[in-house]
Each structure stands twice: as structure tokens, then as C-alpha cells.
Amino acid sequence: MSGQSSKRIWIYDTTLRDGSQAEGISLSIEDKLRIARRLDELGIPFIEGGWPGANPKDVQFFWRLKDEPLQQAQVVAFCSTRRPGKKAADDPMLQEILSAGTDWVTIFGKSWDLHVTEGLQTSLDENLAMIRETIAYLKSCGRRVIYDAEHWFDGYRHNRDYAVQTLEAAIAAGAEWLVFCDTNGGTLPHEIARICREVMDRLGDRGRDDLKFGIHTHNDSETAVANAIAAVLEGVEMVQGTIDGYGERCGNANLCSAIPNLQLKLGYRCLDPQRLPKLTETSRFVSEIANLAPDSRAPFVGLSAFAHKGGIHVSAVQRNPLTYEHISPEAVGNHRRIVISEQAGMSNVLAKARNFGIDLHKDDPTCRQLLQKLKEMENEGYQFEAAEASFELLMREVMGDRPELFELQGFKVHCDRGPGMTHAWATVKVTVEGQNILEAAEGNGPVSALDAALRKALVTFYPRVSDFHLTDYKVRIIDGSSGTSAKTRVLVESSNGVDRWSTVGVSTNIIDASYQAIVEGLEYGLLLQRPSEKVAVRV
């Protein structure tokens, strides 16, 4: 760790504005409020709420926060400079900004002469006036201003003198922050560092002790986080980004990577150390609200970030985590996972048993039996590294500790295809507590109908089944060369609203594979309800 521990880096989150521009994300007002409060709990100092006036949703968001303010974060309204040919005081867009009632406003302006002449279709002098007059007007109305220099790096490369003039206009008008924006995401870290250094040296004699610099990067070259770090190392003090890197095109700098790199690796102060362990749960919360599956391979916060699969790795990390972990997973609120697969050794099995709360010893014959069974099943196409709930059930079965909650007798599925739709119904027969139960249900597809019929058969005996629901369903053809006769692997993720777990089924019949995974999902969910069992996430 470097000796930067006394230097504060101000984190500016734009998930609610820039992040929501990502393809596939649409946040309601309630969604935005829930995310804002979670970011506030994490300790983010600046939260950009949106562009008041751009849509009714953002207007209402700021109004709601007036009645129920955040605990510590500054909510920021976002807007462009005034329109060409208008007075700032007469521009309705700026009136909407003022009505949002935030202390801080972020204004973006054009740095690249190409955008001025081609995009705005105005003169270079008018663009400077737009920047200067907009900021001065907002300052006169009691607002504090962050100036985002849009397309800064492209503008600087094409016409550096004019690009610097845009910043000088913002400084003269009273902007407190100047943020260098790599809007197209095409700049590389060494260029970011050089340009930031040149410009801050050039502007450092403006007589403004309160003037600070920030960085806003996009990920089109897969370097957004590296670019942000490069800028910080040159002296910028604000990092703008989004949770999970959401954003337009390829996304923004991922704060879930930028923050721990800056704080844990370089020693800067980004968040209260007591709040940093909330980072992983914040990441997963935002992805859940955005209705996007969490990236299991995301650094620091992903499910696989501290997962160990190879037997040698597992054995070593059990002795000393530093052998294969660059930080402690607990520092960011994550946890170590031992992955079970055909590459597993005895260390994997023992570590996984401990994780499940099962007491196994290396001399126990069960370990060898389980390892052999595991490798046989994975050879058939099963994949337990992505379905740990199924592996726990397998482990308990080999040990003779798998409770028989119900016994399957069989099922039938029928599908009708009509114009523009497919309708399905299913019947299942199960034995529960000595009683044979036959139930039928409809669904919009065979898997949906099977799931509904099985729940219907079990709910009288196990009322908690009504709380379970499928949260993800994945199908994988194991051997594509076999065509329609190929084996199919189905992974199902289930949840009871609090915990989630994944199960697997394999068969040459996709319906049968789905049935296996659904049945084990219900069985494991019921297993979690037993008072003697420790509730845990098994994905």
C-alpha cells in the first residue's frame, strides 16, 4: 500500500443517470429511491439523481427526496449548459434544475470543437459563453457547480488550446470541480495520465484554492477503471462512475472495482472503512433492482471472485488465503467459496462439507465415495460448481442424511400450439407422508406447468413452498454433435425471498432435466426450513 492514506477521493455515483442509460435498464421512481438510499448507506458522498425536466420521473425523484432526505450524501442534479442564443435566466431547462432544490448541480459542456460546430451548430465563442453564463447564473442562485468537460480527451487531442479555454471559462464562472470526461471511452491509461498532468499543471496558477479536478471514464476500451486510477495517481480528487459499471454502450467506470483498488491497494480514503464491507451487497442489490443477473466473475464483488476450484488451490488457500487471494474477501463483504467439480480433490470435499455445516474427516470412507460419485456424475454432464445446492443434497445422500420429504412417481406434460402462443399443462404424481397425490396445473410452457403442478401437490404438506420461486433458468446442450439427441443440462436458481440456491438436472430429455432441477430446488428450499439447518446461499 502506498503512502496516500491521508488523501480523500470523493466518489461520485451516477448509476441513477448515466447507469440507467444502459441497454436493458429501466428504473422506476421507487427503484431510484431504493438505490439512492442504499448508496447513502454505503457512504457515497455524491449521488447524481438525474436530469430534472428531461422526464417526469426525474422531477418526482427530486421532489420525493425533499420530503425524505438522505442521511449523508449530497444529491446532485444534472443538466447541460444553456441553449445557444438564449440567456441562462430565460432557459426553462435551467429553471427545472433550480426547482430540484439540490445544493450541487453538475453541468456538462462541450470541450471538442467538432461537437460545437457539428453537434450544437454554433460558434466556438458562443460555446464558451454558454459554459461561462450557465455556471455564473447557477452560482448567483446559490448553487455549487461541478463542471463535466464532455469529450475532454478527444477535444484536447484535436484542439488543445480551445479545450483548455472551455475549462478556463468554467473556472472564471466559479465552478468548484472540473471533471475530465472520456465520453467515448477510447483513451488509454497512459494518455489519461499525461493529459491530466499537463492540464492540471497549466491551470494550477489560476488563484483558486477551492478548485479541484475529477475524472469520468467510459469502458469502451475495457480500461475505464484503469483510466480512473491513472487520473487519481496524477492528482484528481473525484472519481465518477456507476455501481457494477452500468452505463451506455460498454458502461462506465465500475465503482465496485475502482473503490477497493483505490482504498485497499493504494491507500486513498474513498469510503468509511466500516462501510466498505457493504460493497458486495450493494452491488447485488443494484443488479437485482435493475433486473439484471449479477456478474459472477466481477472482480471483488462477484460470486466467483474468491472461488477456488483446483484441488491444489483449495489445499493451499485452506492453509493460507494469501496463496491465491489478493485481498481478504470480507474486506468488501464477499466470501470465499470452494467450488466442487471434476477437478476437485479431497480438500475441496472437506472444505465444502465444513461450509455446509457437515462434519467430515479425510479418513472417513464417505469422502472417497462422494468424490468418486461426483466425478462419475460430472462425466455424465452434471456441473456442481454452478449448483451447490444439488451438491449438498448429493453429499447428504451419500452420508445417509438426505431426508425423504416426498417421493416422485412420475409426470406427464402436454402442449398445444396455437396462433402466436403455446399453452401447456402437466400432471404429477408424488407420495408425501404415505399419501399418493395426483395434481395438474397449467403454464405458459412445459417447465412452468410442471413447476406449478409440483408446488400444488406439495403445498398442503409444506406451506412454505408457496414462498419459493424460480429466479433463473438456463439450458446448455452438452454435446452439440449429437443434434436433437444430445444431453441437456438445466440449471435452475430458486429463492424464498431471502436466500437463493441453484440446482442442476441432466437428461437427453430437456423436460426431464428441468424436472430434476426443479424438484431438487424445492427439496433444498424445504431443507433450509429445518430448524437444525443453517440457512445459506447455495449458488
TrEMBL record:
Assigned EC number: 2.3.3.21
Source superkingdom: Bacteria
Keywords: Acyltransferase, Amino-acid biosynthesis, Branched-chain amino acid biosynthesis, Cytoplasm, Isoleucine biosynthesis, Transferase
InterPro entries referenced in this protein's UniProt entry, alphabetically: 2-isopropylmalate_synth_dimer, AIPM/Hcit_synth_CS, Aldolase_TIM, Citramal_synthase, LeuA/HCS_post-cat, LeuA_allosteric_dom_sf, PYR_CT
GO biological process, alphabetically ordered: isoleucine biosynthetic process; L-leucine biosynthetic process
Molecular function as annotated in GO: (R)-citramalate synthase activity; 2-isopropylmalate synthase activity
Coiled coil: none
Family: Belongs to the alpha-IPM synthase/homocitrate synthase family.
Catalysed reaction equations from the record: pyruvate + acetyl-CoA + H2O = (3R)-citramalate + CoA + H(+)
Broad enzyme group: transferase
Pathway where it operates: Amino-acid biosynthesis; L-isoleucine biosynthesis; 2-oxobutanoate from pyruvate: step 1/3
UniProt organism field: Oxynema aestuarii AP17
Pfam families per the UniProt record, alphabetical: HCS_D2, HMGL-like, LeuA_dimer
SMART domains from the UniProt entry: LeuA_dimer
Domain annotation Pyruvate carboxyltransferase: ranges: 9-277
Name of this protein: Citramalate synthase
